[in-house]
Specification:
This protein is an all-alpha fold and 150 residues long. It is built from five helices and no strands. It has one domain. The mean pLDDT is 90.
Length: 150
Amino acid sequence: MTDKPAGMTLIIKTVCRLLVGLILLYGIYIILHGHLSPGGGFGGGVVLALGLLAVLLAYGREETLKWLRLGLLKDLEHASPLVFLLIGLAGTAWGGAFLANILSKGRLFALLSSGLILPLNVVIGLKVGLSLFLVVLAMAEFDLDKGAEE
């Protein structure tokens, strides 16, 4: 056995380090502008997950977990459906229906012009992105050589 470093080559790690911030920023952009252009919580969440997965592939599982706080990611992923439910119930608290809009509509084509759609997109983006990343991270822990024996 050789003691080669985890992950990919130095070139791939460097390119990943340069691009991962842009990928995550683009995912956030898709989430925040989902009510104004194609995108939204699901599409933006997938892009966020792909940014984190690029780091996982380039650096390996152990190195990725050194700079990612796995507990925080799990907590955010678990809390996002509860936040969605609370946003939905806020409409009933103000005398409306579930998911009734309680925020002002704002100016047309502005970032804050959609009422509850923007916060719901953020919650959905967190749920989708973190769920996809955590599923792949769990699969990365599985060792194919030892899988049949255990």
